[in-house]
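Budget justification aside, the reviewers requested a transparent look at the raw inputs and outputs of the sequence design task funded under Objective 1. We therefore reproduce one unedited record. The lines immediately below are the C-alpha cells for a 392-residue chain.
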C-alpha cells in the first residue's frame, strides 16, 4: 500500500519554518501512477476567462511583468501539481503515482485548471544504470511526452520541472545524506548530470513552445552556509559552493543548457530557502538571450514568508518587474484558509499559482488536493477547486 507523504510535521515545521519544501511519499505502491490538472489562463488585469474546450494551450512568453500568448493577450497559469514522476521510478515502483490516462486528465480539467506542473527525476530521465530500465531512459521519456500530449489535448499548459537530482549532500537540511542518488531533494542541481538533463529535456520539447520549463524545484544553498551572499552566488553561478559536497550547476548554467539547444520556451527560475525567498532574485537574475524568464515562488503556511506583510515587502518588487508564478501553494491543515489568502493576494497582482498536489495522499499529513482521481476534493482541495471554478 502507498505510504503517506513524507511530511514536515508541525514540530519540524516550527524548527524549519523557513522550509517551503513540497512533500512527497518516501514509498509508494507498484500499482500507483500519476494524474494531472488544469488551471485557467486569464488576463492578469481582467476577470479570468475559460479556455475553449480542448483549445491548444498558449505559447507563453514574458512581456514586461506579464505572461502573454502568441497573440499578445495576457495570460495566467492557474492549476495543480501532479507529483509522482520524481519518486516512483527511482524507488522501483513505476513512473507515475496514480492514473495519467485521458479520464484522469479530464478530471483535472474539470476543475477549470489550465496548467499542470510535472515533477521529474533526472536519473530516471537520463536512464542511469541503477534505474530499472522499465522506468528509466527511453521508457520514462516516452511516458512524460505522452502525459504532456494528453494535457495539451485538454488545453492545459504542461510545466516540466526537475524535482529530485543527483549528488551526495550531508549539510544543513540534508534529506538523504547516505546516498548520492536522486532519492530526495538536494540543495542545488549538480554539475555532473543536471545540465545534460536540461539539454535533453529542451531538445525533446523545443519544437513545442506551449511547454514551460521549471529549472529546479526548491533550491536551499542558504541551508548549507550562513553567508547569504555566497548562497545567492552559488544559486546563479554554481561551482564549488560552501557547505555543499558536490560541484553545483547554477541557474545560469542550466539556462544556458536550455538555450543552447535553440529552445525559446518560457523558463521558470525559483529563489532560495526552498523557493520561498526571492529577495535577491532580481539582483542575481540569470542572463537570458531569449528574454523569456519568470520568477518562481513556493509558499506553505509553515514558511517564513507566509504573511501579507512579507508578500508586500519581499514579493511585490519582483512581481513589478517580471512574470511571477507560485509553483506550489499549500498548507498542512487539511483546510484552505491559508491558500485562500495567498490566492487573493496573487489575484490582486495578476500572478499565477498552482496547488500542491493532485495526489490521493492524506491531507491531514500533507497538502493533498483530492481523495480520488475522479477529482473529489479534500477539505483542502475544496478551496482551490471552488476558487478556480468561481473565476470562470
Amino acid at each position: 500500500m502507498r505510504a503517506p507523504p513524507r511530511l514536515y510535521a508541525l514540530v519540524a515545521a516550527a524548527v524549519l519554518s523557513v522550509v517551503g519544501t513540497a512533500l512527497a511519499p518516501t514509498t509508494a505502491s507498484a500499482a500507483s501512477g500519476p494524474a494531472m490538472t488544469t488551471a485557467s489562463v486569464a488576463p492578469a488585469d481582467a476577470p479570468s476567462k475559460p479556455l475553449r474546450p480542448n483549445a491548444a494551450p498558449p505559447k507563453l512568453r514574458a512581456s514586461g511583468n506579464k505572461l502573454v500568448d502568441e497573440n499578445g493577450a495576457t495570460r495566467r497559469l492557474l492549476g495543480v501539481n501532479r507529483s509522482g514522476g520524481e519518486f516512483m521510478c527511482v524507488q522501483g515502483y513505476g513512473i507515475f503515482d496514480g492514473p495519467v490516462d485521458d479520464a484522469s486528465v479530464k478530471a483535472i480539467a474539470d476543475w477549470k485548471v489550465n496548467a499542470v506542473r510535472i515533477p521529474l527525476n533526472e536519473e530516471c530521465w537520463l536512464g542511469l544504470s541503477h534505474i530499472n530500465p522499465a522506468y528509466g531512459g527511453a521508457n520514462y521519456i516516452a511516458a512524460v511526452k505522452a502525459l504532456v500530449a494528453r494535457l495539451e489535448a485538454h488545453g492545459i499548459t504542461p510545466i516540466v520541472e526537475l524535482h529530485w537530482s543527483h549528488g551526495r549532500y550531508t549539510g544543513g537540511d540534508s534529506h538523504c545524506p547516505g546516498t548520492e542518488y536522486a532519492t530526495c531533494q538536494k540543495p542545488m542541481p549538480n554539475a555532473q548530470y543536471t545540465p545534460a538533463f536540461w539539454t535533453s529535456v529542451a531538445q525533446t520539447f523545443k519544437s513545442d513552445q506551449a511547454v514551460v520549463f521549471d529549472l529546479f524545484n526548491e533550491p536551499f544553498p542558504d541551508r548549507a552556509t550562513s553567508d547569504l551572499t555566497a548562497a545567492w552566488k552559488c544559486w546563479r553561478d554554481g561551482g564549488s559552493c560552501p557547505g555543499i559536497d558536490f560541484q553545483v550547476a547554477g541557474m545560469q548554467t542550466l539556462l544556458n543548457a536550455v538555450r543552447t539547444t535553440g529552445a525559446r520556451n518560457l523558463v521558470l527560475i525559483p529563489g532560495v530557502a526552498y523557493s520561498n525567498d526571492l529577495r535577491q532574485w532580481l539582483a542575481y537574475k540569470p542572463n537570458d538571450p531569449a528574454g523569456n524568464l519568470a520568477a518562481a515562488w513556493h509558499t506553505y503556511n509553515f514558511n517564513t514568508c507566509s504573511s501579507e506583510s512579507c508578500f508586500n515587502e519581499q514579493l511585490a518588487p519582483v512581481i513589478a518587474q517580471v512574470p511571477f508564478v507560485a509553483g506550489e501553494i499549500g498548507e498542512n491543515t487539511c483546510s484552505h484558509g491559508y491558500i485562500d489568502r495567498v490566492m487573493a493576494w496573487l489575484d490582486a497582482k495578476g500572478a499565477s499559482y498552482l496547488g500542491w498536489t493532485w495526489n490521493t495522499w492524506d491531507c491531514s499529513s500533507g497538502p493533498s488536493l483530492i481523495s480520488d482521481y475522479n477529482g473529489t476534493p479534500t477539505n483542502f482541495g475544496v478551496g482551490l477547486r471552488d476558487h478556480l471554478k468561481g473565476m470562470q
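The longest strand covers residues 157-164. Residues 138-153 form the longest helix (16 residues). Computational costs for records of this kind are itemized in the attached budget.
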